[in-house]
Fold:
Amino acid sequence: MRLWIKIALFSILLVVVGVGVYFALSNRGPAIVELPPGGRGPGGFPIPYASGTPGAGGSGGGSTTSTVPERPETPAPAEVSVTPISDHPVFDFWMNPATSEVFYLAADGRVFRERDGLDEALSSEELYNLISVEVSTDRQRVLVSLGATHAPEWRIFDILDRAWRPLPPGIVAATWGSRPDRIIAQVSRPAESRKLVEVDLSRPSFPETALVANFELLNVSLHAVRQNTLLITEQPSEKTNGRVWNFDLTRKTLSLLFTPSPGLMVSIPRNGSVGFLSMSPREFQIFSFGAGIQPLAAVPFRTFPQKCALAASTTLCFAPVRFTGLLSSLSLPDDWLSGAAIATDQLFRTNLTDGETDLMFSSGETDLPALDAVRVEAAANDLYVLNRRDRTLYRVTMPAQTP
Structure:
């Protein structure tokens, strides 16, 4: 056979294969992994009907829609309203309870203040590859990381000055210290061991005071929950036993807070006495954080700590009803943290005094938008939630809880 005929036949074969692959991918829809009411695993998220498995509406592979018992709609009470308040895609937000102001860092790195239904720009510089945001104790500064996760760049935005200040290179993890002009950071620099230091922001040279000379923990995040208490958490994954430590900054002692567990995630609000914990996929707990750790109210839902907020003696938690994504199986929290699985949430309010839990509303039903809460803060009768689905900041207004 002549060479040009062979080349032509091979080219035709490539075109046919390419067209087949295109149509196969274009017909692939999102899987819905729904969490059926009532059916729960051993202490964890409700048992999901995994896509692509027998009895799940699939034949063993690819993207499918699960078949679940019919779930009755939960109409929202007339007193509940869910209102978008941001004009730009939001990366993260924070509040100043003293002034009732709401601020947010847009996905392009600009800082805005929401006021009377309008967004006021506080900065014009655009920043990308944002990683994390943490607000200072006085709510006047934010600590922001961006760039490569293994070697992030760190900056501080001053709300009063409306200006960014870059921090020295070499910081791999950081959190606000006991004062608004201090941060606690893990630093890694060439020819040096990793150290835990306190950085003085009040001086132009940013002098560092060593707290621990050899601090070789990898892939951890820092969060100062009290004046002398530093929470250190590993990156959570269903595939590894995650650890959470309590580091005493005065005694320089490090102790495990919980048994190492797959998917371990913990959130304790600063200066708070209540925390939230989840493990994959077995357990969600609300606990007291004082001289020791004690479980508080037992709740009829499972969720992630990032979806919860504390308001006086009440917790407000968004809990997933279903997950949607191009999934052949569901791995939690990995798929949710990476954005491969998008949740549809219900909102629950729990009274920590009597343990009573009320379902406030189901998002995506009646006239309410579908919400996948990635950050939540409470203020009076309002709840502020960042929705992953549309990167919009919403204000949720609810009736006051009766005594």
Notes: Confidence is low (pLDDT under 50) at residues 19-29, 36-73. The helical segments are 3-26, 334-338. DSSP finds two helices and 31 strands in the chain.
